[in-house]
Amino acid sequence: MHQRLYIEKRPEFADDYALTERLKTRLDLTGLQRVRRLAVYDLYDCPEALLAAAISRVFSDPVSDEVRDALPKADFTLVIEPLPGQFDQRADSAMQCLRLLDDAFAPTVVTSAQAWLFEGTLDEAARAKLRQHLINPIDSREKNLAETALPPHHPAAPVPRYDGFTALDADGLAAWHAAQGLAMTLADLQLVQKYFRAEQREPSETEIRVLDTYWSDHCRHTTFATALHDIAFPQTDFGAALAADFADYEAQRQAVYGARAAARPYTLMDLATIDAKYQRAQGNLQDVEISAEVNACSVYIDVDEDGKTRPWLLQFKNETHNHPTEIEPYGGAATCIGGAIRDPLSGRAYVYQALRISGSADPREPYAATLPGKLPQAVIAEGAAAGASSYGNQIGLATGQIVEYYHEGFKAKHMEVGAVVAAVPAENVRREEPAAGDLVLLIGGATGRDGCGGATGSSRAQHGGSLQESAAEVQKGNPPEERKLQRLFRNPEFSRRIKRCNDFGAGGVAVAIGELADGLDINLDAVPVKYQGLSGTELAISESQERMAIVIAAEDHAAMQALAAAENLTASHVATVTADATLTMHWQGDTIVRLKRDFLDSNGAANAQHGVRIAEPDDSASPLAVTSEKNWVDALKAQLATLAHADQKGLGDRFDHSVGAACVLIPYGGRYQRTPVEASVYQLPTEGRTHTASILAHGYNPAVSAWSPYHGGLLAVVDATARLVACGGNAETAHYSLQEYYRRMGAEADNWGQPYAALLGAHHALAALGRAAIGGKDSMSGSYHNLHVPPTLIAFAVAAVDVRRVISPEYKDKGHQLYWLRCPQDALGRPDLKAFAANNRFLFEAIGEGNVKSIRAVRHGGILQALYESAIGNGIGVHIDQLEDGFAPEYGGYLISSDGGLGITDNLQHLGFTTDSGKLEINGQSAAIKDLYAIASATLASVYPLYESVGEATRVPLATAKDAQRRPRAVSGIATPRICLPVFPGTNSELDTARAFRKNGGDVIETVICNQNRDALDASLQAFADHLANSQILVLAGGFSAGDEPDGSGKYMANVLANPRIADAIAALLERDGLILGICNGFQALIKSGLLPGGKIAAPVPGDATLTHNRIGRHIARIATTVVANNHSPWLADFQIGEAHSVNFSHGEGRFTAADAVLKTLIKNGQIAFQYAAPGDLAPSMSPKHNPNGSLYAVEGITSPCGRILGKMGHSERHQHHGQQNYPDFRAQNLFAAGIKAFK
């Protein structure tokens, strides 16, 4: 049985106008008059008697949606659906919700699509534009509405053998190589042929694809492992400097390898890793963990928790997804951060901190200028930002810094880089060699066709047909599944049983499991699948996301399966460790892979490059040679209008920085939240109070790197170090990781000279600082025909820091002294690294003395850019009588403000002082800070708007009821009130919420809602009801339950609450004067269930209060001010009416709306708890600067009529001591204490 549903937003909830204007402008469609969007659902085997309930509770929101039997007529209709085999979160979440309603939905299958209806005069050319813009062939296609049957699943054919392969002559093998589209070279294939001749058999398709994946540049770094010969430097002063660095490198090689040095080839990998090897040989870097598991950098640190110190492992990793993001921006960027997370997760560490870096050509480029075979730059940039933020936001990963770099070379291929930091108590990590008989379990998601060939695809240059040919290469992320993995691996009972672990990244089963031990017997029939019909080859190489492979002792099998099931995850035994060094795979009774380990690990044919030539940079084009400007005001305005110095807060505002309640520095600091931080700084994820935080800093400048890769690599290390020091870090304990991104090398000597020069520059800096890169990642496919990415080396620096030492760059007050701690440069434009190291030591000591109030490292844009950025956060001006070299990019220098003297040191120059003038007053000229900011914030506003376009901002009254007064607490004398906290698929704030209640004396009981099957769901619902019956408080934490799908937030949670057992338990809780709190996603569930504002479970009807999409049409993440409107609720008993709080917000659907009559009732009853307000005069405000989602009457939170139920959008739980240090006078909102006190 088939039913089709069409769901459209009611006019007051639709974004038709914004969509129309955007498409009309972007695509130059003057005849376009109106755009409408509808969600389309096809239901198969849906019980007809339950269809009405499914429509009202799952597929639509009666308040905001209209259900249609057919598509409305339009001048042009385009219906788009995901490609078969792609993960469809909307359809998947719909099926999860249906199975909550009734067992009869068990066989129901749902597919989804989106209908676009266009009105206006649209000729075929206009329609073609719309198709090209809206359909990315990588992940979607036009839907044929006449088709109403599910696509059949055809059984997979047996895995073929390549008969005659071993008999091919040289010409035949070359032709075969070309026909197969392999990433491996012909020389690699010749080795494969030789191997199978010796084995006296023909290879299977799977064996060829496994080898192609295993030996790909992405998996085995073949470019970096290529032997380099004839390395040549220019015969100039620049060349002599490089030769000196090379001589130092050779001396380190001799010290490390001894007599073996002469026979060891020169490679990019050797140059990249020599500093770490040398430092280790000298007895340094003893804090670095040495292990056979090398998925992430790992160092030992001491962490204080509740006054006690114990060893932890601090892990960090950088990852890149350039190729996938270029061809499918949303999915590629999403799985970039997903992959970065799973690397330290495989090391048993909990990821809590991230940094996102992207590279783009000008995203304002007209669509008409798009290169053939490419997506428009705006589509790539916006889609990648949406994908990266969505995945991180959903999984609950705090992103503390977001930076996008611009260069025309990124038109060849977008750059998408994610870096993460994780930590775990060292006692929870077991590293052990697998033994014969050990089991390999696959934990997490099921396998599909998405990601097949991703590793090999990422190793190839892009060409004009990539969009059409690479559909299967881009993985589809499922963030709620990865969140479950995070929770599971955080459990020491689970992690301590793991001998070895790998994540399913590039290469799928072949690599993730294939690398775990020398001998493995893999049963591909045991791999869980998303759908039937996958071939043995697809099962072997699919890179479907959210999967982990672990090695355990056989006796731990049952315990590990039970622990996984308790977190709503499957744990499938898919392989066994064997004594023979052979990788074997079985499928459907056939042995389709049998490869000897020594051959598999040979990485193919040895590669050699004869000729590496480092070019002399053109001094006349040097971005480091900046002339002085007499009229600095005009010059600074011109600089701020460039992409390189444009304000990027509109981009960063969509990334959640506060989840985890560990944020020390928000991405944009000051009371205006405008000064960009130097680095990401977060407290470690301890259960108790800690002073230990981690700094994640980076350095990179595409203009410098394109001009001189050597300077680019050197200055990347310097800038990463300076950023770390500017946050209070100690450069002498920092650890580094490098990210390289280059064109396809080919055989040209100049091409190879680019990464070699960059690594030599990085070596120059690291050797001088006595530090090393202990990890890295390379991507060597940044080419599109004759267009190439800028030579890129990004340096990451990581160190632990005491939060009491952390410094931020914004000025704190007027009357502070300003200093420029300068770093001399040599004739080649290189910083004096001895002076730089001395500066770093001086600053570290000065911070400890307490006089330093702000630090901003100097880099591109010069000291004037630093002066400006430090001013905008708090609107504090500066007065400087004389300033020279204002625009010189003096890397290694620092701008410092101090409330006293800084002492005496070389290169310290006093500049002036801070003022309350709101101006930069320098050399007798002045510029208003607000005028400068207006220029910088306008540059990218068309791509990344910070605020929606609205008319004049209005204020509304404080919604205090006339008879509002505190109600006396009901004293029940419970020493430790119990809090029931359900964890739904997609919940991500439960740890923060539980910590907040425990800190205030509550006993929190978590109940994971498991829905792998009906029995698990029934058991978890019963556990939820039982826990609720024995609790005083129910709290619904924030997150993205079921990914905020289908097409609406909180639906899954609301359906759980409406389950008869849970509804009865909630009614009983309220009857005994229990309390309910819902934050963000929890508030959305309370609204959709009827508990708010009515106080009881009820089906919503049109006109009811609801929470809908933010007016700006995207996720927002920032601090906003709220004021208390009423306090006659136990949750508000500690607050005064009019009291203000600083609250972290992070949501996409937080706009409160209601019919006039409903709003008036809420006001009359005093049910409006909090309103958004201007932080200055605390007046409730409709301005998007203060009311981030555009909520009606500035409503942020409401209560039930009895006051015992509170729902609010702001994350009151996301603040800890020493948190948000660069937001002045943070006023925490501890409503958890009031909830606990209600029962004492």
From TrEMBL:
EC numbers for this chain: 6.3.5.3
Record SMART domains: GATase_5
Protein name: Phosphoribosylformylglycinamidine synthase
Gene Ontology MF annotations: ATP binding; metal ion binding; phosphoribosylformylglycinamidine synthase activity
Underlying gene: purL
Domain PurM-like C-terminal: from-to ranges: 436-587
Annotated spans, Disordered: 453-480
Keyword Metal-binding appears in the UniProt entry: yes
Organism of derivation: Cardiobacterium hominis (strain ATCC 15826 / DSM 8339 / NCTC 10426 / 6573)
Limits of the Phosphoribosylformylglycinamidine synthase linker domain: 178-221
